[in-house]
Amino acid sequence: MYQLSFSLEEFLAEYWQKKPTIIKGGFANFQDPISPEEIAGLSMEEEVDSRFVSNLNDEWSAEHGPFPEEKFAQLPETHWQLIVQAANHWHQGAAEMLEPFKAMPNWLFDDLMVLYSVEGGGVGPHIDQYDVFIVQGQGKRYWRVGEKDHGQYNENHRHTALRQIESFDTLIEGELEPGDILYIPPGFPHEGKTLEPSMSYSVGYRSPKEQELLSNFADYVLAHEQGDMHLHNPELNTRRNHSEVSNNDIADLTKMLKAAMASQDNVNQFLGCMLSQSRHQLDIVAPEEVWQAEELVDFLQSGKSLYKVSGLKSLFLEDKPNIAYINGEIFEFDSEETHIVTTLCNYDEISAEDFTQISHESLIHLTALLNKGYWFVAD
Ligand SMILES: [Mn+2]
User: Fold this and answer.
1) What is the DSSP letter of 244?
2) What would the pLDDT profile of 333-345 be if each residue is shown by its tens digit?
3) Which residues pair with residue 115 across a beta bridge?
4) What is the DSSP secondary structure assignment for residue 328, as one 8-state letter?
5) Is residue 52 a contact partner of residue 65, using CB atoms and an 8 Å limit?
6) How far apart are CA 175 and CA 197, in angstroms?
7) How far apart are alpha carbons 42 and 46 in whole angstroms?
């Protein structure tokens, strides 16, 4: 059981997107959920996003996985680190340490990055556009965080992939020991130096950019064949200036642009789809044999459980809690069955007790979710 020793609510009010802080003993009695060997194992997998960063003799290099097993037989003693993104998608134990963070909205959550570093390892001073809780596991790292970036920092071009900056003055600093948490808001430069072989867990949150919202909305409009019409104006007059675009023309075209977003239902649906898509690959495996609805009823009645693919985003909107947005898809349940949507979205495991009464329509949706491999049964 992973439990925070502090109030997330108070933390949000004081620090979230405001200032960095070190929370000593943020996790009481923290136990590493994953071992360095398991990190190495994950970094050998094709579908897992991994990196190896080395800074021996101040020569920086960064390589992307998957890595061959031989790589781990001949590593130097110091100055390297191995990073696995979205470890929560591939390792159950790693996913479990996220449990206390479920008081934060899931749509903002990005992934759990796990990092194993030997003495002297680090990625150098840099700036991220993420909110991150860096939880220290075994070992020790020394961290420094600087004042928020307002354009005062110079990029360093030692290694393009690492996007380092030259230097920064210290705002806060400290040695992290097992269970300590460093919170860094977006835009604050930071640098970690490994003092002894260390495991770090970065719980990352990423809010969308305005340009991403617009570009994703445009994709959504195209995919749904919305707005497939030209400007219609039968009241055209001749003009003195052949090259002028009149204020009326601009007003008509602006109206057209805004019309795409005029329907809140449409915008809601777009947001539900967009926000429920994970930015990292998921471990989705469709079942070998297609499930029939009746089989699912029998299965649930046997008292067994269904499990959600780790990291799968399943959301519902406050306004319409009978619609589940799952991995970018829409599943509309009976309006009497919002509890099914809440259960599906909030929990990683569901059992028959959660669904003693279920309409045929909902059963069809559940069956579809199983057949897509979004939920699965234990072997
Ligand atoms: Mn960082």
Assistant:
1) P
2) 999 999 999 999 9
3) 83, 200
4) T
5) yes
6) 14
7) 9
Give Cα separations from 108 to 203, 276, 278 (angstroms): 11, 10, 10
* CB-neighbour burial class of residue 243 (10 A; exposed 0-12, middle 13-18, buried 19+): exposed
61, two tokens: 């290099």
Give CA–CA dist 79/365, Å, rounded.
51
Cα(145)–Cα(19) distance, integer angstroms? 10
Distance 213 CA to ligand 1 centre (A): 24
Distance 265 CA to ligand 1 centre (A): 37
pLDDT band at 364; cut points 50, 70, 90: very high
- DSSP character string of 124-144: -SB--SSEEEEEE-SSEEEEE
For the packed helices 293-301 and 360-371, what is the interaxial angle rounded to 10 degrees? Answer: 90
Q: How far is the CA of 296 from the centre of ligand 1 (A)?
A: 44
pLDDT digits (tens, 9 = 90+) for 144-173: 999 999 999 998 877 777 789 999 999 999
304 Cα to the center of ligand 1, angstroms: 41
CA of 103 to the centre of ligand 1 (A): 23
Q: Ligand 1 centroid vs 232 CA: distance in angstroms? A: 51
Rounded distance from Cα 145 to ligand 1 centre (Å):
10
Compute the distance between CA of residue 242 and CA of residue 103 in angstroms, rounded to an integer: 60
* Token digits of residue 120: 């002297």
How far, in Å, is the centroid of ligand 1 from the Cα of 300? 44
> Which of the two residues, 46 and 163, has the higher pLDDT score?
46
Going by pLDDT thresholds of 50, 70 and 90, the confidence category of residue 296 is very high
Q: Cα separation of 276 and 267, whole Å? A: 14
Q: What's the mean pLDDT when you consider all of the chain?
A: 95
DSSP H stretches of helix in the chain? 8-14, 36-43, 92-96, 210-223, 247-259, 264-275, 293-301, 338-346, 360-371
Q: Is residue 98 within a helix (H) or strand (E), and if so which, with residue range?
A: none
> Is it the case that residue 378 has pLDDT exceeding 90?
no
Measured CA to CA, the distance from residue 110 to residue 128 in angstroms comes to: 13
Residue 125: cis peptide before it, omega within 30 degrees of 0: no
- CA of 126 relative to ligand 1 center, distance in Å: 6
From ligand 1's centre to the CA of 169, what distance in Å?
16
How many whole angstroms from 261 Cα to the centroid of ligand 1? 36
Query: Which residue is listed with tokens 């008292």?
Result: 303
